[in-house]
Amino acid sequence: DIQMTQSPSSLSASVGDRVTITCRASQSISSYLNWYQQKPGKAPKLLIYAASSLQSGVPSRFSGSGSGTDFTLTISSLQPEDFATYYCQQSYSTRRGTFGQGTKLEIK
Amino acid sequence: EVQLVESGGVVVQPGGSLRLSCAASGFTFDDYAMHWVRQAPGKGLEWVSLISWDGGSTYYADSVKGRFTISRDNSKNSLYLQMNSLRAEDTALYYCAKDKRVATITYYFDYWGQGTLVTVSS
Question: How many helices and strands, by DSSP H and E, does chain B display?
Fold first, then answer.
């Protein structure tokens, strides 16, 4: 099975900062990598799919990049509403949809 | 507006059974694959199961294979998860989620319900 590892597990940042979260797959997954945002008590929200495609309605300060085994989610200028937990997820295996362990983004 | 509303979560004893439901509206239900994803209290997300738009294909996480069964009734715009032989480690908030593309399994979950809580405890 494909394992997904995110780093860091937690991160403190300030409003206006540029933030990058990394996700690594245990084997090549081409560009089959998605990113979700989850706020406390809420369902996850799709931000980026296929490594770099922005989901409709998601602000353009969010971007994704990478292919193969290494991927990044970048928030260009943190806004107060961006403090949340972020998950990567591989969709390479059509029989599994494995998530990373999550990265909690907190206010510094 | 797309809506997914889960129900059926309760407290159940280990070894017990439960059926979760997800009522869908706001889109052509039988055009899309559907998934169940769970989240144990304070933990991360775990994909559980998938069913294709026509019900012809189903897949399961290893952790639930042989115990859980996913199904759908396209005439009722409803998704189900039959859960048998429940264990303490199945305790979680269970979400149903819609796949993004028509008649394709992508694992891009573009809409989620609010979740229903299953607690397995004696």
Answer: 0, 11
Contacts of B37 in chain A (CB under 8 A): 44, 97
Taking CA atoms, A10 is separated from A20, A56, A99, in Å, by 12, 27, 16
Q: From its phi and psi, is residue B83 left (phi > 0), alpha (psi between -120 and 50) or beta?
A: beta
Nearest-angstrom CA–CA distance, B73 and A19:
43
Residue scoring higher pLDDT (A94 or B122): B122
Rg (CA), chain A: 13
Q: How far apart are CA B34 and CA B105, in angstroms?
A: 9
Give the mean pLDDT of chain A.
95
Chain B residues whose CB is inside 8 A of the A100 CB are 44
